[in-house]
Amino acid sequence: MRKFGIVLKYELKEYFSSKAFMGITIFMxxxxxxxxxxxxxxxxxxxxxxxxxxxxTEEKDDGTGEEQDQFLYLDQAGVVREEILEExxxxxxxxxxxxxxxxxxxxxxxxxxxxxxxxSPTQYKYYVYNKSMTDHNVSMFDQAMxxxxxxxxxxxxxxxxxxxxxxxxxxxxxxxxxxxxxxGSNYWYCYALVILVFMLITYYGQMIAVSVTNEKSNRAxxxxxxxxxxxSLLFGKVVAGxxxxxxxxxxxxxxxxxxYQMNREQWGGMIDRFLDIPAEVLLAFAFFxxxxxxxxxxxxxxxxxxxxxxxxxxxxxxxxxxxxMIVYFFSLVQLTNIDGTVIKVLxxxxxxxxxxxxxxxxxxxxxxxxxxxxxxxxxxxILGTGFLGAKLYxxxxxxxGNPIKLSTALRDLRRTEN
Length: 418
What we know:
The protein has helices spanning 2-16, 19-41, 45-48, 82-88, 100-108, 137-157, 161-168, 183-217, 220-227, 230-262, 272-275, 279-305, 313-316, 318-334, 341-346, 353-363, 368-397, 406-417; strands spanning 50-53, 56-59, 69-75, 92-96, 114-120, 123-128.
């Protein structure tokens, strides 16, 4: 235990004394906080729907004080009613155009945002300079054209459109009471957390593997393995990597979550789906995410011991990376079927429970015994992987030359034990 403490202390010192490590941590935390504080100092009402007035929030004012976009229209069919356009496009100033060519020239010169030429009661042309992915003008104008047509038809037939509309559009009162979990609302922050733990495993796992290989490439490992045990070396490196990784991610994520809670009103709650995470989900994420990270970190450490050059680390860990990627994609796909058989099985496997179990906790129904059994399996797998990784680490550290295949290392290890 003393040797483990020495290795752990040394590895932690390497991480926390690194200017790059601390600089990235502070920079990312500050960047996240600055971005989330922006609505307090910059008018982002066009995006958030909330405007800063005297240090307090108000709903966006669309009165005459706000500059409105200008749309042009040319009514060749004589069907347009401007009051309908103003109702469907409340933020738009409408003006008529004398000719179609003049309308096109105004849009091309960006004097108007868009233009409509109504050819007949059921046909029109839409002119726009740059059509964005969020352009809903066509769908809104379709609704306007249908309204014009219905009004003219009802007038010609002597009917009252208001009465017909009231019959077809009768309001239905609905109350929704979620007795357990709202999967739709919880989906997006689960999606983000799965990506976060995947990044943690791949980034820090690679760092651990490179750290092991560096000591082997400069022959320092020859001194280390004679002065301490392989268990102390590998466990010290992995635990140090876990502590530093959790510290860095915790600082960044904590700063972002805290900043959002302070500015949630300014954002109008629009990113609740990503950052308004319940405490029980964060707790499950902390336990299972950290467990999954430790499980893979031991494997990455062993992969690093099987090569002699840092440039061979990627090749040695490629098979492990494939497993991580497959689990990652399966986890994301199965989020839409949280009570399905596949994700239930994945939530008990140590290679995937780090992401699927906390997703089930957040979005589905999970019995307490399922959580306990899954976490117990993960803990036992971490210990088993740790001791296996330490044996591979011990065997591979004094082997130089070409990378050792994992299958070859396991076969040699079995022979030595027999």
